[in-house]
Amino acid sequence: MNDFSFWVILSNLLLATRWTVLLSFVAFVCGGLVGLALLFARVSKIPWLEAATRYYIEFFQGTPLLMQLFLFFFGVALLGLEVSPWLAASLALTFWTSAFLTEIWRGCVESLPKGQWEAGETLALSYTEQMRYVILPQAFRIAIAPTVGFSVQVIKGTALASIIGFVDLTKAGTMLNNATFRPFLVYSLVALIYFALCFPLSWYAHRLERQHNVAR
Amino acid sequence: MTYKLQFAELLPYWDILLHGLIFTIVLTVISTVAGIAVGTAGAAARTFGPKWLDPIVAAYVEIVRNTPFIVQLFFIFFGLPAAGVKLTETTAAFLAMVFNLGAYSTEIIRAGIEAVPKAHIEAGESLAMSRLQILRWIVLKQAFQKVYPALASQIIIVMLGSAVVSQISAEDLTYAANYIQSRNFRAFEVYLVVALLYLLLAIAARAILRGVGRIIFPKA
Fold first, then answer.
1. Rounded CA gap, A15 and B168, in Å?
2. pLDDT digits (tens, 9 = 90+) for A113-160
3. Which residues from chain A sit within 8 angstroms of residue B74, using beta carbons?
């Protein structure tokens, strides 16, 4: 009996893990795209555009992710649209991720010597050409380690989507706990699965960081 | 059909918001102090402690850093009672916060300790300072000065993360928001106002931490 329910719990948690992985993937990819667009605005040297991006980042970095999820969940409904937890969670996590990635990548861009921009300018490259051919290829190498590191934060962030009703790993844990009354076992397994998802990424980010420091 | 935002509907509930705000501030302040104490102990144990302690502290740090805060909270609040440790929502919230920040600050402070030059420790030894004196006056002082900005931003991350304790009914600011929107059904307005309150908290905390930094580490 005990053995049976252990496997039922584990298999159900693993099935729900698919949704955690999928939501993390969507948030990371979409957040990365939005973040890249914002990066162009953030270092554009156009004052109002830079300021607008700064406020955007300030809002998403300065408020709890949970509040952002609530705002998207209830806010999209105000526009008269049918809103699913899946949509609200993807939107909120995308914007949240984009704010952090923009700020990480800005740091990488600004760590490059100013002469790189000036060299691009002397060659009569436009702003987008300078970014595309001179700045981003160099910034990319510095950015890999912290970006991989941040993906761990995204996976952990998706756990909050459970609160607005998205059935991910955390939500499945809550439901299974309610059904089986074995919280110690259920939440240990939930934590273990998150650890199995996150630790390889943390480890890889750490290794990349060390390699990068050696290369310099 | 267009929806009209009605913020006036929040006014009758100001005392509930205030109560939640104070809870969140107290929760953050106490867990900051306790969490950094845990972190200092953890970092000292990893760098100066006995060998057998190192993997235990390392495991603690990695487990906390690679699992979501909400799962840690649920484990403490729902899981531990099953193992015989009964906790109230408030105690569980405090415990989870300290447990979480303790791990992050262990790692941050350890990085600071490792950046202290070996020669400084040797200089202390040649002055016949005891191990504890060297730790206190040479190692930790410099380590904290180096990692203070990282520690400050981690404190703010933890404060924003504390919104999750509302899920075990600890009566923080988010709990107040949930309560109010269940009464007046103005969910968007409530969450917008509370999100802005968190933003103000974060900005204020950043300013306070910067000021404190200037006092503790003049000319740093």
1. 25
2. 999 999 999 999 999 999 999 999 999 999 999 999 999 999 999 999
3. 170, 173-174, 183, 187, 190
Topology (CATH level 3) of domain B10-216: MetI-like fold (1.10.3720)
> Does the beta-carbon distance from A66 to B69 stay under 8 Å?
no
**Chain A: residue nearest B204 by CA?**
A62
Tell me the DSSP string of A26-63. Answer: HHHHHHHHHHHHHHHHHTS--HHHHHHHHHHHHHHHHS
- pLDDT value at position B146? 92
Å from A192 to nearest chain B CA? 8
Query: In whole angstroms, what is the distance from residue B20 CA to residue B171 CA?
Result: 6
Residues whose CB falls within 8 Å of the CB of residue A66, separated by 6 or more in sequence, listed in order? A160, A163, B163, B164, B166, B174
Chain B contact for A69 (CB, 8 A cutoff): no
Q: Residues of B with CB below 8 A from A79's CB?
A: 3
What's the whole-model pTM score? 0.92
Number of Cβ atoms within 10 Å of the Cβ of A56: 18
How far does B70 lie from chain A, in Å, by closest CA?
7
Q: What is the CATH architecture assignment of A2-215?
A: Orthogonal Bundle (1.10)
For residue A81, what pLDDT band results from cuts at 50, 70 and 90? confident
Domain ranges of chain A: 2-215
For B66, which of A68, A183, A199 is closest by C-beta distance?
A199
Domain map (residue ranges) of chain B: 10-216
pLDDT at position A3 is: 56
* Residue numbers of chain B with a pLDDT score lower than 50: none
- Could you report the per-residue pLDDT of B74-112, keeping only the tens digit for each? 999 999 988 888 899 999 999 999 999 999 999 999 999
| Whole-number pLDDT of residue A37 | 96
| Two tokens, residue B217 | 């580490």
> Which 130-159 residues of chain A touch chain B by CB within 8 A?
152, 156-157, 159
